[in-house]
Amino acid sequence: MIQVSRIPFERLNPDSQIVFFTGAGISAESGLATFRDPDGHWAKHDPMQLASRAGFQQDQELVLSWYAQRRKNALRADPNDAHRTITRFQKLFPHSVVITQNVDGLHARAGNQRILELHGNLHRTKCFLCHRPLALPDGAQSVICSCGGAGRPDVVWFGETLDPSLLSEAMEYSRNCDLFFSIGTSNQIFPAGELPYLARKAGAIVIEINPQATPFSPLADQSLREPAGVVLPALYKEFHEAFAA
Ligand code: BV8
């Protein structure tokens, strides 16, 4: 049974600014592995080996094959009801944005608009040395840049800084929103993990959607302990009844 949300609708209207902040959990119902769940990536692999510059320099083949497999899985996966419901929310609330830590591209494939991919996108490749974008030939998992550098996924690894302008845009949205949904993230990675705290400090309503508790849970106005693909469609129904003209 879905917990009924205690969202104060009287504080909202169709012009309200809503942030959908998402992590790997929103893609779980599409069949994609998360990172820190018991069956997640980091239960099988060392994150520093697979998601850091040093790890790539140590064993390019291992890292490139891991990302090639994740690209294949992501392309085989379909956006789920959670991704698709965000598209419906964005039609009802034209000032709503998606700020995602995910690199799987499912938000865009679901038709979400105004997406900030804080950690990049694993379907894009760039040069490890000069950072220029590279085209990965179909079926290949490696490519060499004209500067001699190796192609690598265009994602943010541990120890790498996020795109500063993207991060400040995300912080701006978080500080100025009326409602902040934190969906499917364990809230353990920074600086992205800072965003729900900024929203709360700025007085937004902050709703967490995650079957598990996270370090942010005690500060959420409400934590909905159900899968995102179940909660978001139910929430959309409540919002549609309250705000659809
Ligand atoms: C940086 C590569 C400058 C992309 C990843 C303080 C400030 C700044 C940095 C740091 C800091 N303290 C430490 C750092 C360093 C580090 C960091 O955060 N370390 C952690 C361990 C503390 N941060 C960095 O290195 C960042 N760089 O800041 O540069 C700098 C450098 C060095 C030192 C200081 C500053 C870069 C961070 C990005 C790293 N890249 N991966 C990729 O291949 O994907 S990390 C990885 O974690 C992914 O990017 C992922 O997006 C991210 C967050 O994970 P989640 O999305 O939350 O996934 P997780 O599995 O953890 O949780 C899933 C949740 O879903 C669970 O809670 C589960 O219950 C829930 N769930 C499951 N099913 C469902 C569900 N929820 C809803 N519905 C369901 N059905």
Any overview of this molecule?
The model has no long low-confidence stretch (mean pLDDT 96). The chain folds into two domains: 1-32 and 80-119 and 161-245, TPP-binding domain (Rossmann fold, 3-Layer(aba) Sandwich); 35-76 and 123-155, SIR2/SIRT2 'Small Domain', CATH 3.30.1600.10. Helices cover 34% and strands 16% of the residues. The strands form two sheets. A six-stranded parallel β-sheet has the order 3-2-1-7-8-9, with helices on one face. It contains nine helices and nine strands. Helix 5 (81-92) packs parallel to helix 9 and helix 7 (164-176) runs parallel beside helix 8. It has helices spanning 41-44, 47-50, 53-58, 60-76, 81-92, 106-109, 164-176, 195-201, 228-243; strands spanning 18-22, 97-100, 115-117, 120-127, 133-134, 151-155, 179-183, 205-209, 222-224. Helix 8 (195-201) links the parallel strand 7 and strand 8 (205-209). The chain has 245 residues and is α/β, with parallel strands linked by helices. The structure holds ligand BV8. Ligand BV8 is lined by residues 23-25, 28-29, 34-37, 40, 51, 101-103, 119, 155-161, 184-186, 188-191, 209-212, 214, 227-229.
